[in-house]
Write a structure and sequence with these properties.
This protein has 182 residues and is mostly helical. It is built from 8 helices and no strands. The longest helix has 35 residues. The termini are far apart. This is Secreted protein.
């Protein structure tokens, strides 16, 4: 075999190895994102033009989240919020629409005290998706019902469901005691 043939074989082998490494890294990243974001990963892939764009967005969320000063609540604050939640639930019987609005405000207050930016709902979703992907759909659903309740377009049963959805995220935010986990 000539020198050129050996060089060609080596170049092909190096390119093949590089391609295999690249594919393995992409698969590792994809698995990490699927595990981290759960159903939010699939939702993002369905929303975006391609998987790569969705994955870039999720990676950007992780980077933004890493820069936030997310902190656990002190025990006294957790107790205070838990008592406020009980009061909101009790008010549901007499004023379900008002109670749902209060539940939304209470979830937002806990987020703010934990260190999450709370100005924009879409940004809240993005930031929460990193550490709370499992309860994110609860929050979306509750917020949507809350919006309809403000327009007097939600039934009492829907308002009850909103409370259940808000409670799922509320409890998770309240009980989380370490950055990124329970």
């Amino acid at each position: 075999m000539s020198t050129y043939a050996w060089v060609a074989v080596v170049v092909v082998a190096v390119v093949a190895v590089a391609a295999v490494v690249y594919v393995m890294q992409q698969q590792k990243r994809r698995n990490h994102l699927r595990e981290r974001f759960g159903p939010e990963y699939e939702r993002m892939v369905a929303e975006r033009e391609n998987r790569r764009e969705a994955e870039q967005e999720l990676l950007a969320r992780e980077q933004r989240h890493a820069k936030l000063d997310i902190r656990p609540l002190p025990e006294e604050a957790r107790d205070t919020y838990a008592n406020r939640w009980t009061e909101v639930q009790e008010r549901f019987v007499d004023a379900p629409g008002f109670a749902v609005t209060e539940a939304d405000q209470l979830v937002t207050a806990v987020m703010a005290e934990r260190g999450y930016p709370t100005e924009d709902f879409e940004q809240r979703l993005s930031d929460l998706s990193v550490g709370h992907a499992a309860t994110l759909d609860h929050y979306r659903t509750a917020h949507e019902i809350s919006g309809r309740a403000a327009r007097k377009e939600a039934s009492t049963e829907e308002l009850r469901q909103a409370m259940v959805h808000y409670r799922a995220l509320f409890e998770e935010l309240l009980q989380e005691t370490t950055r990124g986990g329970r």
